[in-house]
């Protein structure tokens, strides 16, 4: 089935999460990362305002919420996840990796601009912390749900994303 399936259980309904739900979450995350990247890139080199920064923050918080939803879905998918589904999920996440790293690198490059606007460095630091926590939780859930044969590849992907977060977080520390 394509989405959630309602399964009667006594007098309550249990929502069954599927791999397609997880893939839809990853697609939504990809769209939101691209939108966040666009907002970061559009932050003007001069004349940037707190309003610009608040737009970036709103996008970051929305992204975090969708990542958290994805994490819940990963944890709710019936286990074990098949090799074919694991490959599909891993492939989707791998296509997301360059966008995540690029957005984080763009944020680092904008640090001098952030320094010129009161409160923006603290806001960026907070956003990075929130996004890092959400991302770390999803990474852990994905690795826990991944068959052993995919763990090295998934862990390497996790390590690359974590390194990009570490660089960005250090820049705004």
Count of helix runs: 6
Q: In whole angstroms, how far apart are the ends?
A: 46 Å
Mean pLDDT: 91
* Series of H and E elements: EEHHHHHH
Task: Please give a structural write-up.
It contains six helices and two strands. By secondary structure, it is mostly helical. It has a two-stranded antiparallel sheet with strand order 1-2. Helix 1 (about 20-40) packs antiparallel against helix 2, helix 1 packs parallel to helix 3 (about 85-110) and helix 2 (about 50-75) packs parallel to helix 5 (about 120-145). The chain has one domain (about 5-170). The relative contact order is 0.15.
What topology emerges from the helices and strands here?
Elements: E1 5-9, E2 12-16, H1 19-42, H2 50-76, H3 83-109, H4 111-115, H5 120-145, H6 151-171
Antiparallel strand pairs: 1-2
Helix pairs in contact: 1-2, 1-3, 2-5, 3-6, 5-6
List keywords for this structure.
mainly alpha, disordered N terminus, 173 residues, two-stranded antiparallel ribbon, elongated
Please summarize what this structure is.
The protein has 173 residues and is mainly α. Helices cover 75% and strands 6% of the residues. Strands 1-2 form a two-stranded antiparallel ribbon.
């Amino acid at each position: 089935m394509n989405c959630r399936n309602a399964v009667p259980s006594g007098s309550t309904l249990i929502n069954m999460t599927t791999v397609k739900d997880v893939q839809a979450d990853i697609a939504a995350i990809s769209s939101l990362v691209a939108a966040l990247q666009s907002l970061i890139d559009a932050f003007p080199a001069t004349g940037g305002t707190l309003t610009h920064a608040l737009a970036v923050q709103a996008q970051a918080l929305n992204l975090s919420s969708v990542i958290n939803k994805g994490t819940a879905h990963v944890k709710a998918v019936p286990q074990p996840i098949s090799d074919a589904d694991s490959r599909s999920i891993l492939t989707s996440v791998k296509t997301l990796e360059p966008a995540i790293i690029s957005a984080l690198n763009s944020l680092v490059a904008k640090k001098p601009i952030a320094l010129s606007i009161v409160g923006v460095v603290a806001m960026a630091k907070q956003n990075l912390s929130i996004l890092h926590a959400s991302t770390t939780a999803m990474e852990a859930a994905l690795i826990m749900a991944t068959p052993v044969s995919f763990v090295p590849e998934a862990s390497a992907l996790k390590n690359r994303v974590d390194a990009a977060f570490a660089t960005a977080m250090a820049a705004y520390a």
